[in-house]
Specification:
271 residues, alpha/beta, Threonyl-tRNA Synthetase, Chain A, domain 2, 4-stranded antiparallel sheet, 36% helix, globular, magnesium ion binding, HAD-SF-IIB-MPGP
Length: 271
């Protein structure tokens, strides 16, 4: 198990993980947030939220000096301290939002698929779907490389939609509340791997990675990191993380930020 003063990098999901599923509070996790900050451990927000949403949260969490991963891994933002001549401030993995929307509109017209995405509705409807305020919903609609969907059709049509998207170079990822459409080469696991490699190159030493998440869209992240915390979630989805020798995965008995703290207590030894 790593010590807090070892070379560490931590990737965390937000909704249902660091943030409470119901009120979006991170207060129960604050003691660990303070410990990580004092030890200069990078805490990388890794979420389905948009860049606009994450930027506001980063400020509130005092993490603006760290990178973040948005839209389920489709977008990586690098702060000045992480940028190089080769790396721009924003790294897009996969398809652009305008191309995703065009493909979805074309497929719906062609096959009469029954779904609605954020690009089809108003901020008021997104607020109803998510429990966010309308102002927060507007931030959630500022998308760059993925589209959340609500599916209303049957299973057969859904399987057909998946095949059609695959032919367009797109894939579906299951989130806590929505299906997310993005490029096939985008995902939390791919983004975590890319950012971990960049950090190791900067440090010049081996770095242990910890990932924390509660939903199916976190699985690729949890299977990429060295130590995975599967936070108990308010859903019925299976979370089959490949745990290697069995000691690298911890499943919490608590939800949200309480489970988040429980996971770090399990894996990180205080010096």
């Amino acid at each position: 198990m790593p010590y807090l003063d070892d070379p560490l990098i931590i990737f965390t999901d937000l909704d249902g993980s660091l943030l409470d599923h119901h009120d979006y509070s991170w207060k129960p996790a604050q003691p660990w947030l303070d410990k990580l900050a004092a030890a200069n451990v990078p805490l990388i927000l890794t979420t389905s939220k948009t860049s606009a949403e994450v930027a506001a949260l980063q400020t509130a969490l005092h993490l603006t000096h760290q990178p973040f991963i948005a839209e389920n891994g489709a977008i990586i933002h690098l702060p000045p301290g992480w940028q190089t001549q080769e790396q721009q401030p924003v790294h897009v993995m996969g398809a652009r939002y305008s191309d995703i929307r065009q493909a979805l509109v074309d497929l719906r017209q062609r096959y009469d698929f029954e779904f609605r995405g954020f690009g089809d509705v108003t901020p008021k409807q997104v607020a109803v779907w998510t429990g966010l305020s309308e102002a927060q919903a507007e931030l959630a609609m500022q998308r760059e490389a993925s589209e959340p969907l609500v599916w209303f059709g049957n299973d057969l049509d859904f399987a057909h939609l998946k095949k059609c998207l695959s032919r367009e170079g797109l894939a579906l990822t299951r989130g806590g509340r929505f299906w997310h459409v993005m490029g096939t080469d985008a995902g939390k696991g791919q983004a975590v791997q890319w950012l971990s490699q960049l950090y190791r190159q900067q440090r010049g030493v081996p770095v242990a990675s910890i990932g924390l998440g509660d939903g199916p869209n976190d699985l690729s992240m949890l299977e990429t990191v060295d130590y995975a915390v599967v936070i108990k979630g308010y859903h019925e989805h299976q979370m089959p993380v490949n745990d290697g020798n069995g000691s690298q995965v911890f499943r919490t008995t608590e939800f949200g930020p309480h489970g988040w703290s429980q996971g770090l207590n399990h894996f990180i030894t205080l010096p």
